[in-house]
Design a protein that fits this description.
By secondary structure, the chain is of the alpha+beta class. It has one domain (about 30-170): Electron Transport, Fmn-binding Protein, Chain A (Pnp Oxidase, Chain A, Roll), CATH 2.30.110. It contains five helices and seven strands; from the N terminus they run αααββββαβββα. It has helices at about 5-15, 20-25, 35-40, 90-95, 180-185; strands at about 45-50, 55-65, 70-75, 75-80, 100-105, 110-125, 135-150. Strands 2-1-5-6-7-4-3 form a seven-stranded antiparallel beta sheet, with helices on one face. Strand 3 and strand 4 form a beta hairpin. The longest helix has 10 residues, at about 5-15. The protein is globular and about 55 Å long. About 15% of the residues are buried.
Length: about 190
């Protein structure tokens, strides 16, 4: 299953990044690596994107102690739902449309991002509930696409400094090192600005 649809492709073609996008897609996987698992289980938050049955989007911030998200099978992760504002925007969307996107971020000396797209299911009787004090539901996500994402714009929150990759007026943008890797450099399109 491809990660791209016609809208993605039209912009890739317009900006000359079609070949780069194809190369990046080759890094997508459906099973978590040991490194993915360690990273996911080390973070204390992530962002959850959902959409309702009419494709109206919602994005929420989910947090807990490191380890609150667990990789429980080669292609499945789980996390608890704690009492919140009672709107159930994200989880209500999952009831109607199980497609989700998750973004895990490390903001610090060594920034990192990992995306997980897949199908989510909710349960109020999941055996994992016993592992999470205060959890009212467990959300299990079966991954369809797991892929790293360039961390260049992530600020160093500990130093409270913005990312060195943010464009600055009158300065040549700093390119991320990964664009120079042999596996990518022949497909990286020139900057437009």
């Amino acid at each position: 299953m491809t990660m791209y649809h016609e809208g993605n492709r039209s912009l890739q073609d317009e900006f000359g990044s079609h070949a780069l996008a194809d190369r990046l897609e080759s890094f997508a996987r459906t099973a978590f690596s040991d490194e993915d698992k360690a990273f996911i289980e080390s973070v204390g938050f992530f962002f959850l994107a959902t959409a309702d049955a009419k494709a109206h989007p919602d994005c929420s911030f989910k947090a807990g102690p490191p380890g609150f998200v667990k990789v429980i099978e080669p292609n499945v992760l789980a996390f608890p739902d704690y009492d919140g504002n009672g709107m159930f925007k994200s989880l209500g969307n999952i009831v109607d449309n199980g497609h989700v996107g998750m973004l895990f971020i490390a903001m610090g000396e060594r920034p990192r991002r990992l995306r997980v797209n897949g199908a989510a299911k909710l349960s109020t009787t999941d055996p994992l509930l016993a592992q999470f004090d205060g959890a009212q539901m467990i959300v299990r996500v079966t991954a369809a696409h797991i892929f790293p994402n360039c961390p260049r714009y992530i600020p160093d929150m500990a130093a409270q400094t913005p990312s060195v990759y943010l464009p600055k007026k009158g300065e040549t943008p700093v390119e991320p090192v990964w664009k120079t890797f042999d596996v990518f450099k022949d497909v990286v399109p020139p900057r437009r600005v």
